[in-house]
Amino acid sequence: MASLDTWTLGEHVHDGVTHPTYRKGEGPGVIVIHEVPGITPRVLAFAEDVVRRGFTVVLPSLFGRPGAPFAPAEVARSFAQVCVSREFTLFALHRTAPVTLWLRSLARSLHEELGGPGVGAVGMCLTGGYALAMLANAPVAAPVVAQPSVPLPLGSARRADLGLSPEDLDSVRRKVDGGCQILGLRYEDDMAVGSRFATLRRELGDNFIAVEFPGRQHSTLTEHRQEAGVERVLEFFADKLRS
């Protein structure tokens, strides 16, 4: 099983907010944003796949215990952290999570260092929409939205909401109109995703590329990993980040 022992521990600071980061690899930059409960061994295994394809990967640790396995106790601990933190939003409509300001800063820093057309970003589950939010004001050239689940799908409005402020959604639309594409992954009957893929198709048109799998499972790249989905993400990064 993959271990964080081979990754370089650092930190990134923006506007007084500090989060640890783990870094490994060489090549264009990719930010892998973990899901609940944190940087689990299977999140790390996906990140190692990205490293092996020739990318510099940065794993921010936003909540949870880095390296801890996926387990009910870890999920409960992570949700407790998220619920009391002002960086995250779980229920708000038409609002961008404050933590995405820190993630945008991380993307700018990585791009300034490595150059190229931009950086890649992948969010999963609770963080699934963050890669889209980063596109609004950061040099993100390859955003991947994996099973976006926030706002939590309670009621039809939240099921459809992208977790973006109106201003950020306008910014995303402008970048998409300029040719940027967004890759999305989900299981077709995943209730946590709600109707967000329909919203993405409506708002972004053909530049939203949906990769969908049959079934009711959830974590397309980690706990319920689909090899075809992982390969599609790696191809997307290679296509968009190697100019």
TrEMBL record:
MF annotations from Gene Ontology: hydrolase activity
Task: Please provide the record's keywords in A-Z order.
Answer: Hydrolase
Entry-linked InterPro entries: AB_hydrolase_fold, Dienelactn_hydro
Q: Where is the Dienelactone hydrolase domain?
A: 26-151
Q: Which Pfam families match?
A: DLH
What is the name of the protein in this document? Dienelactone hydrolase family protein
Native organism is Nocardioides malaquae
